[in-house]
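Q: HXXEE domain-containing protein, please. Structure only.
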Amino acid sequence: MLPWLHRNREHLLALMKNLRLQPVAFTRIALEELTLLSVIALFLPPVWFTAATIAYGFHLAVHCVQMLVTYQRGCFLPQWSAPIQLPIVALLIWGMSHHHSSGLLTASLIMIGVMVLNLVLMHALTVRLQQQ
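A: Structure for HXXEE domain-containing protein:
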């Protein structure tokens, strides 16, 4: 991701030109997400882990859409791991025993909200830490 940002900075939309994600910040965000997922898996009922997996699949679908949009705009973002992982995650979700749970839809919507809020907070925190 970082090399792509460096090579394509001039092609990015005006809104994204101020994005300066450094390797340490990128790693920090990834570790925080792994920690959050581990807490969900260890301390919440299994339906929440299934919901988190569904939220992750939603996240991958967003990256697939990003690939299409950036291709159309002439600055292709090659996030090949997303279309490769998406069918695997779909199979994992299908194989989870909680996919018929009545609370799964609610839990999935909550986890997607948590994912979006976490992304916003981590990027805001990263920008603040990089400005110091």
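A: Brief note, in case it's useful. The radius of gyration is 16 Å.
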